Amino acid sequence: MNQRKYESINKNVIVLYDEMFPLYIVKGEKNFLIDCSITARAIGIHKTINKILGEEKIDSVLLTHSHYDHTGACSYLQNIYNFDIYGSYKTVELLKKEKVIDFIDKMNQDFKKLLKDNSKTKCDMLKNLKSVKQGDRIKIDDSSYFEILDTPGHTKCSISFLLQPEKILFPGDSVGVIERNGTIKPLFLSSYKEYEKSLNKLIKVEPNILAFCHNKYIKGKDKTKSFLELSLKSTKELKDEILKKLKKDRDFDKIAQEIFKKEFSMPFVMGPHKAIMINLKAMVNSVYKEFVEEKT
Ligand SMILES: [Zn+2]
Q1: How many A from CA of 173 to the centre of ligand 1?
Q2: Which of 100, 122, 155, 230 has its CA 20 to 30 A from that of 69?
Q3: Count of structural domains within the chain
């Protein structure tokens, strides 16, 4: 359970490095943590936060969505810091359910096995859950705040956080993931159309920094713009490819397998194979529903 390396990316934002799941601390009158990684990282995250914050604590956690790899370390850390948790209405509703927490824990225990983590850490029920929506603001101090942007499409519960006035965007999985070979993997799991709409919305934000929850962050308005535009292009291309396959075949499992073999040979974010296949099948399903079924 090593401590992580960390670095300031501007005057009040610190990134806790991790190839798969970087986390961000935003410091102010209150201290915020964006997303919560996986359970296997919980102990290391705690040690690193202690080193960064010293006597101070995490007051609030902002969740971009409810997926197991963004919520895995949440209950472990909440037991220590007793923070509030902000998420969309849907995220909050989901995380209140015992069945959902059990599923998140199951995926995390699988991930722990993969990483040979034999600790007893697990996901428990969460408390102090608060919902936010498009246009809401979460105050950091007199000069800065988070603006909430609804960005569904990756999941129905996805939102993004825009740190103002610095214009640092925390998009969660709403903009896809950069893989090892430099390609961008789209992640339209709940709805292709919504995902595309959300991406267009985030392009208009013109963020100065794009702080990814997988891989790394990008600095500079030009760089964030070209990334977001490339992400949109990759998204449309994957949709077209799925659509082409659906014209020949309606076997979602087979199509998901084919895309996996071709496109997912070098994933940055590993994780249980099962989770990757669930995601791919969800994308095939969303294209089918929105482009094939609706027309017939
Ligand atoms: Zn996700």
Answers
A1: 5
A2: 230
A3: 2
